[in-house]
Amino acid sequence: MASYLDAGSIVALGAGLAILQKEFGLTDGAIGVLAAIGPNALGCAIGAFLGGRLGDKLGRKRIYQYDLMVYAFGILLIALAVNSTMLFAGTFIVGVAVGADVPTSLALVGEFAPAKARGKLLGFTQVAWCLGPVVVLWMALVLAPWGLLGIRIVFLHLFVVAVVTWALRRGLAESARWQEAAKSAQGALGSVAELFRGSNFKALVWTATIYLFWNIAAGTAGIFNPYIISTLHAGGQAMSVGLSSANFAVTMIVTVTVFMKYADRDFRTRRLIWGVGAVMQVMAYGLFLIFPFTIMSVVANIGLFAVGSALAGEAFYKVFSQELFPTKLRGTAQGFTFGVARTFLGIWSFFVPVLAHAGIREIAALLTLFLAISGVVGFFFMPDTSGKSLEQIEAERA
User: Is residue 349 part of a domain?
Assistant: First the structure.
């Protein structure tokens, strides 16, 4: 549900950008700031840095038990916003809450999962990450004739889901692996300096690299696709939202049928899946360098990127972020890499609306380069951790 609420809030904001810009008289620069400070970027980064570290120090449950109430408050501010101040404040609060929730919740999943099903179960969180946008975008599509009121209803749906999820989470147990680490002589809290030494540092650089460069492309698609399609007149509001929802629907299907089925098989299979996905994503944005920006090229981009991101994207990042770090630093490490990636995405988001008015080629060229970097680094430096217990991986890397 952390993934559902994270992606849902990102895409809800994206689906409403054009409407919110008109309603509150926001400039292109203000739209860039709004996208940058929320769940897609800087707000999320701050929450991830803090939440990941506190999750290692205080336990997973203490963080995920309370942060959703903060999330719900922020969502309510956005849904009921009567001025830009409420809109910006709510967006930032939602970002911080989501950022704190994701690394601690994923650490819990990784620590509960059996060695032979870790990829499958973490892949399932990615299904939820895709389901959130699909629900949000179809709601936005149906409610498009209602304009601003329709977008408010979309955000209120996230408020209800957050409150229900908070109530359900109260019955969850603390991670047994974290409890064991807390009882050990070293304690649950590892020194941050340990992340920047030896195998931990190598894992930190690798996971940060594959996620940072992939996330810039994914974040752009997630929050700006409807805005870019509408702004460049490739389709209207309803068309732009409908096409964007197809991206997440296809990713969800491929995650279930391919990633979850084969991610735990063996090292060669993992590399094959990653390689195919990486090539498809590079092709997705490379085609804008050759063909004009029309509905046909947008459909091709969405199809290629949707399938490719299911195979060589956030799902694998989530898996390796659990496998490559010791329990006492797992949340800290993922909070760091997640936060770094969202920080860079925030900086990038300042410029996307301006670049969009200039045309799609500049954006496409940069995203093609970023996806190539993520794909190459992920393929050639991927560690062999498939099917091993977290304790076995930690012992081997030590």
Answer: yes
- What residues have CB less than 8 Å from 226, skipping those under 6 apart? 14, 15, 17, 18, 237, 240, 241, 244
Q: Which tens digits make up the pLDDT trace of 23-36?
A: 999 987 888 788 88
**pLDDT for the residue numbered 173:** 86
**Which residues lie below 8 Å from residue 358, measured CB to CB, with a gap of 6+?**
none
Let me know if residue 179 belongs to a domain. Answer: no
If one counts the domains in the chain, the total is 1
- What's residue 210's pLDDT? 98
CA nearest to 106, candidates 388, 323, 374: 323
Distance (Å, rounded) from C-alpha 65 to C-alpha 33? 30
Q: Which domain holds residue 73?
A: 2-173+193-397
Distance CA 109, CA 74 (A): 25
Reading the block at residue 283, the tokens are: 């092709």
> Taking a C-beta distance cutoff of 8 angstroms, is the pair 81, 90 a contact?
yes
Helices (H), 60-117: 60-64, 67-79, 84-112
Domain membership flag for residue 214:
yes
List all residues 6 or more positions away from 120 whose beta carbon is below 8 Å from its beta carbon.
Answer: 113, 260, 261, 263, 264
Sign of CA dihedral 352, 355, 360, 361: negative
SS3 175: coil
pLDDT score recorded for residue 188: 44
Return the CATH number at 159.
1.20.1250.20
* Alpha carbon distance 261, 304 (integer Å): 20
Residue ranges for the chain with pLDDT beneath 70: 185-190, 222-241, 353-359
Pairwise CA distance, residues 98 & 71, whole Å: 7
Are 107 and 175 in contact by the 8 Å Cβ rule? The answer is yes
Which stretches of 275-382 are assigned E, i.e. beta strand?
A: none
CA proximity to 237, closest of 331, 107, 147: 147
In a domain, 268, yes or no: yes
Provide the pLDDT for residue 238.
64
